[in-house]
Amino acid sequence: MNTVLLTGFEPFGGERVNPSWEVVKQFHERRIDDATVIACRLPCVYGRSVQVLNGLIDRHRPALVLAVGQAGGRAGLSVERVSINIDDARIADNLGQQPIDVPIVADGPAAYFATVPVKAMVQAMRDAGIPAEVSQSAGTYVCNHVMYGLLHCLAQLGYGARGGFIHTPYLPQQAAALPNAPSMAADTIAAGLDIAIRTALQTEHDLNISGGALS
Questions:
Q1: Structural domain of residue 13, as residue ranges?
Q2: What does the pLDDT look like over 3-59, one tens digit per residue?
Q3: 175 lies in some domain
Q4: Is 205 a catalytic residue?
Q5: 44, 143, 145, 152: which is the annotated catalytic residue?
Q6: Catalytic residue among 22, 40, 80, 153
Q7: pLDDT digits (tens, 9 = 90+) for 49-94
Q8: What is the pTM of this model?
């Protein structure tokens, strides 16, 4: 039986909710195609988040791993193309850690590219009327830390699992306290994630279409 591991984060930065977990938890034990989804919440903590994720991968041996996180200020679902081997925190994590210019994996590759069909996932969401984009940067906070750790783990295990990361906008209730901040309803985020998972499971080769950016 195929397993999809889907993760979200606990709230951080003074927020009371994190849209990634609010939506991801709805998928727990859901069947998508021939796979069963396992949903888990990660701590917004450098180091510990990847330790928890690695343990989940070792336990469930998923065919697909999608980590989901919040990117306040973005207007659509962002499928990340690349993660870089650096922690450079603008704010402290939930344990007060604030690493600056610290490698995630000592002597690890400078970067890892997502192994899911990034452009196909974005196109499928757009075709369904859901705002989505290819993102060229997962940042340097815990989201990038987890994406890099995820792809490093899968590369080391080498059993063919695919991995990627999706950022969500704020939920409307978060944006209400932030003038002019874009948001997306939880139901829309959930619909986008469902499409992204199905596309990742069904698509062997990514689309050869433009997903670049000018900056």
A1: 2-202
A2: 999 999 999 999 999 999 999 999 999 999 999 999 999 999 999 999 999 999 999
A3: yes
A4: no
A5: 143
A6: 80
A7: 999 999 999 999 999 999 999 999 999 999 999 999 999 999 999 9
A8: 0.97
Does residue 72 form part of some domain? Answer: yes
Whether the predicted pLDDT of 118 surpasses 80: yes
Is residue 108 one of the residues assigned to a domain? yes
39 occurs within a structural domain: yes
Determine the Cα–Cα distance for residues 145 and 52; give it in Å rounded to an integer. 13
DSSP 8-state class, residue 100: E
SS3 content of the chain, % helix, strand, coil (to 5): 30, 25, 45
CATH number for position 118 = 3.40.630.20
The tokens for 129 are: 């009327």
Contact 198, 209 (CB under 8 A): no
Give the H or E element holding residue 168. Answer: strand 162-168
* Structure token pair of residue 79: 């499928």
Dihedral sign, Cα of residue 48, residue 49, residue 53, residue 59: positive
Q: Is residue 167 among the annotated active site residues?
A: yes
Neighbours of 187 (CB within 10 A): 10
Is 29 noted as a catalytic residue in this protein?
A: no
- pLDDT reported for residue 1: 66
Please give the Cα distance from 114 to 60 (Å, whole number). Answer: 20
Residues in the chain: 215
Tens digits of residue pLDDT in 165-193: 999 999 999 999 998 999 999 999 999 99
Domain count, the chain: 1
